[in-house]
Write a structure and sequence with these properties.
This protein is of the alpha+beta class. It has a domain of 178 residues: ApbE-like domains (T-fold). Helix content is 27%, strand content 29%. A hairpin with a 4-residue loop joins strand 4 and strand 5. The longest helix has 19 residues. It starts with a strand and ends with a strand. Bound molecules: adenosine-5'-diphosphate and magnesium ion. The site of adenosine-5'-diphosphate has 21 residues, from helix 7.
Length: 354
Amino acid sequence: MCLSYKKMAAMVLVLGSCILTGCAKFFPAEKQEISAQSTSHSREIFAMDTAMRVTAYGDRAKEAVQAAEEEIKRLDALFSVGNASGDIARLNENASAVVSGETCELINRSKELYNSTGGALNIAVYPLMEAWGFTSGEYRVPEQKEIDAMLTCMDVDEISCDENTGKVILPEGMGIDLGAIAKGYTSARLMDVFVSYDIASAIVSLGGNVQALGNKPDGTKWRVAVEDPFSEEGDSYAGILEITDQAVITSGAYERYFEQDGKRYHHIIDPATGYPAENGLASVTVVSQDGALADALSTALFVMGKDKALAYWKEHADEFNVILIEDNKDMTITEGLQDCFSSQNPFLVEKKDQ
Ligand code: ADP
Ligand code: MG
């Protein structure tokens, strides 16, 4: 049995030859640069079970990066399933709890997306994640009867979450996990933190999930590399996105998996079957101004498969764009990315009205 835990799904290319990833080999843990153009401050942080890098430009960059780290740690404590005093762990333990306004907001957002994605985004996957061993590292293929029993406790509509009182009640047998949306919510919050420090230019990579504020300090767009899901070392990319004020978030079967009896089982669960989603997609990269949405949809569209994902995009084309890479290596981008995506590989462009 082997495990891959490749969280560097996207790389950020900044400042010409300088490559920024979440990986320590390129950068020291903390870095301050002062040039004629701008002061920058950059820090590596390990949180939410992944390597992160936060970079801000401007006079108050150091203070802003410090505040960003505190915000990441605060949200990690709130949402982590493993932190006994956090909102989600208390809820899973007691089936009801009074939680923070932010947790309530995120649960209600997840409920809306559960409905709009036809159940593909389902935060009630937590018991399944445990059964498959993704929470403990003790990987196994659960018995069908275990899976069948869990599938009966996954109706997210039944979660009651009162935004006035903060009281959340889970139906019997349900456990929740915000893993599909929490990092995107966090990167979006970091943009607000930066703005509160008068920062106009910043970029974060939370385990490969990238979100950028403004443009690079020289006024050009941020260049974000979308990882090639077939790359063995995780060091080649499928294309480059040029973005301003957007999140670029990827979900892929290659990010975290184990193998048993020659078969690979990854960490994105199809809530219809209780098994890892297998709908012909190798990775889904969502580009949106809304980080939480981009994260939730990268997971949900991966579950849906190409046809349903593109149909969903056509209904919500004003909210996001997407790059779909199939198991057979075919690549499709939606038309909003036409002018900001480049690749050495061929790709098809999906039009809204086609
Ligand atoms: P990552 O967090 O690895 O970058 P994702 O954003 O796709 O990747 O989130 C995967 C995580 O979301 C899983 O580790 C699990 O906690 C949770 N999850 C798995 N399947 C689903 C699903 N269908 N709906 C909601 N959450 C899911
Ligand atoms: Mg996600």
